[in-house]
Amino acid sequence: AASKGSLHTPLRINCDDCFLLLPSLQAYERRFPTCPLIPMFVASDTVSEYKSEDKAIHVIERRCKLDIDAPRLLKKIAGVDYVYFIQKNSLNRRERTLHIEAYNETFSNRVIINEQCSYTVHPDNEDWTCFEQSASLDIKSFFGFESTVEKIAMKQYTSNIKKGKEIIEYYLKQLEEEGITFIPRWAPPVECKSESSTSHTRRPVSPAVNIPDSATKEALNNKETLNTSGSPSEPIAGTPDDKLDADYIKRYLGDLTPMQESCLIRLRQWLQETHKGKIPKDEHILRFLRARDFNIDKAREILCQSLTWRKQHQVDYILDTWNPPQVLQDYYAGGWHHHDKDGRPLYVLRLGQMDTKGLVRALGEEALLRYVLSINEEGLRRCEENTKVFGRPISSWTCLVDLEGLNMRHLWRPGVKALLRIIEVVEANYPETLGRLLILRAPRVFPVLWTLVSPFIDDNTRKKFLIYAGNDYQGPGGLLDYIDKEIIPDFLGGECMCEVPEGGLVPKSLYRTAEELENDDIKLWTETIYQSASVFKGAPHEVLIQIVDASSVITWDFDVCKGDIVFNIFHSKRAPQPPKKDSLGAHSITSPGGNNVQLIDKVWQLGRDYSMVESPLICKEGESVQGSHVTRWPGFYILQWKFHSMPACATTNLPRVDDVLASLQVSSHKCKVMYYTEVIGSEDFRGSMTSLESSHSGFSQLSAATTSSSQSHSSSMISR
Length: 720
Description:
Elements: E1 3-12, H1 21-29, E2 41-51, E3 57-66, H2 72-78, E4 83-92, E5 97-104, E6 111-121, E7 129-139, H3 146-177, H4 192-201, H5 213-225, H6 246-253, H7 258-274, H8 282-291, H9 296-312, H10 318-321, H11 326-331, E8 334-339, E9 345-349, H12 356-363, H13 365-390, E10 397-402, H14 413-429, E11 434-442, H15 446-453, H16 459-462, E12 465-469, H17 514-518, E13 531-536, E14 541-547, E15 553-562, E16 565-572, E17 580-581, E18 597-598, E19 611-612, E20 617-619, E21 624-630, E22 635-643, H18 657-664, E23 670-680, E24 695-697, E25 705-706, E26 714-719
Parallel strand pairs: 9-10, 10-11, 11-12, 24-26
Antiparallel strand pairs: 1-7, 2-3, 3-4, 4-5, 5-6, 6-7, 8-9, 13-23, 14-22, 15-21, 15-23, 16-19, 16-20, 16-22, 17-18, 21-26, 24-25
């Protein structure tokens, strides 16, 4: 297995937070078929149900539909929007227990999740409820995203634990408001003549405990923000914003039904009341509503995420403050070219003439992404201008892509990776901006590229694609149906001179080194939390992490940018000396390319002063490594990246030819890593968790081939 883990959460509720068992069970049942306080819980259906004749036993099995909070990219790769779990609830009124078992139905051959919950009577006070919860996670393989799935599972589990008490309080308060403060205990059926006497011998149940108003208000507030209307409050009748002017709609927004108009008004008002930044224009808000079929909840979510992203990366000012590098102006074969028959701005991209590999090597992915963002921002501006020129709403543009010249060079893996990332960012932040995509002169290699790219494109966007092979675009149903003859570019047989650069190969003299690309100030999809470090032969780079509580989780994510390294984790009961910069005269270790810090004193002995808690992990140049370690003891943990020396041949004790050639590529015995570490405190997990074994995955295949590690408490995933 690539990943195995368990989470255990025992809870004994004290007298200040105690719930009566019977009301608690009644409150629990109100969570079905869906619960507004659990946004990820979309729906549930009853699969089977059993009730004993004496009504003491009630077993019900449900199929639950969940909307997991996972990156959209991961959902696209997995091919699902929702996951399904089977939940079995066994209520024993005689023993006064409720046992809940849940397991995943979706991807059960790749990921195995089991959860156990129980509500029982407190041994010291039978009017109190005890709650205990445990879960296990076994990730066999998940398209190369095992580490991501582990983090999502940990996040969801922690969130559910924190939410559980609040939800029970909410429904207990609901029962109390309905006048239900006493639920008789179960008693075995008796003859009618003894029913009266039996009822007098029953032990009375204590009245329901009062729930603090603050908890109730918080729960009610949560419900309000999650209602189906998608707005915390309705617009006040009679205000100027409760209805849009008909002429304004026709002139700038297009045909809207009364429902769509209402959704736009309510979402705009919600932004005015809650959003502290710049409020987008109605046209922009409308794009997000259309992208989610006017579901306000979903549109508000993606719109808020996009507004935060725009503010974080100063996208609103990109056209005024950023000038594209000269390499882009000379070799990026794309540009704006008049408009189509519907008045949409027309963007022409000669992808087949563009050296994608050269552009990535010369600029890096971040600069390419920023340029694409500037194109989209310019598209929004041109839509506004065309709306004024043509006197009707124009909210999208047309893109014409010429693929003549497309070959296997365009399928260079880092280039495809950059393209997929760009698509992901554009899809999330510029919905409903592409009116039509005309793909011309598609060669035989195009289906390969389309297979790689199409899963990451929204279904609604894919419907706007028109693909022509060879010269089909010149016939009926071709280019003339969408573009006036007078503006068809000359390279497509038209009479209009197109000023789009012709592209061509980027000179290798313009290529930048890996270090120069990493030190680029523009970071749009890699956060600045990543640090750079140099590793030399005899001078490893080390990071100190102090752990106070055992069972904390240390996580890491690093890229091996240059050379091969060995990754180690050590533990020591005493703190190392303050970090010191290595002073090797032969190496410029204080260069901008990264620092080098050594913590383990040379007089320390392994096994006496510190111990190795994980087997060494050899990582090759170009690999990306993610993993975690569950700490067994408090103290000081040292993460170490060490230069990997090539092993000699076992029989001759001489280095192999391949190893010699590989070592020559590492100048001055120097390696380079970009890394990020994080510690998740034990208070977030009410118990222990074992983590993953090592797994290797490749970009070209979305299934992981696993290798085992000798330690069961760590995990690493390596991507090539």
